[in-house]
Amino acid sequence: MSTLKNIIIQKESDENVRQWHLNREQSIALISVTAILIGLFVFFCADYLSTYIYEKRLNQFKANYANVSKNLEILKERLAQIDEDLEIIEEKDSAIRSYAGMPSIDKDIQKLGIGGRSLESGKFFDNLAPVLNEELAILELDVERLSREVNLELSSYGAIYNKVQEDIKRIAMIPSLRPVEEGYLNSTFGYRMDPIDNVKRFHQGQDITVKTGSPIYAPADGVVKRAYYAGGFGNHIKLEHGSGYTTLFAHLSKIKVKHGQKVKRGEIIGLTGNTGRSTAPHLHYEIHHNGKPQNPLDYFFSETQ
What we know:
Strand content: 25-35%
Order of helices and strands: EEHHHEEEEEEEEEEEE
Helix content: 40-55%
Structural class: alpha+beta
Largest sheet: 10 strands, antiparallel
CATH superfamily of the largest domain: Glucose Permease (Domain IIA)
Number of helices: 3
CATH architecture of the largest domain: Distorted Sandwich
Shape: rod-shaped
Number of domains: 3
CATH class of the largest domain: Mainly Beta
Distance between the termini: 135 Å
CATH topology of the largest domain: Glucose Permease (Domain IIA)
Number of strands: 14
Radius of gyration: 49 Å
């Protein structure tokens, strides 16, 4: 095993050569001092680099934190605005339900539909600040709550839409359109003296005095059940509208539809005339609901007399 004895350090130049002779103790001292200096240099360099990297990452974290906090505030403001908008929608929903003849959504059902779950801390990222983690968890609950509210409103509007569609179909079956545009309202619904034999009878319809050849309009969507000449009615048409409604048009000069034909509200079905048991050109118009005669004047929405 070799041991350190002497170290010779030599420096040469053009003029001379210089040498230094170090004994064992001096060599150990030189090596020790050199090692210490190198160690100190490495230590300070490592300390400086770690401090620099730490401060750089800290500044980045602060910048990211500030950015996330700012975005969270923006999201909270937007969620608050959506919350306000949903309150308005809920008020309109209640009003529309009232107009449509539907009951309002029960408050207990509403709470059950939008109830949230408890706050779960640490669900997101462990390396986020606890405050941010909590803020994100609260925002998630708000988003889930708003999502459930929106789904509840969509379901409600779906029910309202279906109800309105049913009402539209039902309204389309009600004979609400005046069958002729002009004319004078003559013999009305109820008991009257028959103009031909002067006997008091129940008049099941409304007579409208109008010149021959005036167009007759279907008062509602329906199907033609009769369209032919028959005794006292002369040329006449009977429409079946659904929901128990039927209408009858008598004394026509011309029939423009046939049995089984579907007609739309406002479609011309015939022309007025003076056929059958009639003393002058006019339209005899009847409305029946579930087989019972109705006063046609109760179904005239037009102000034309």
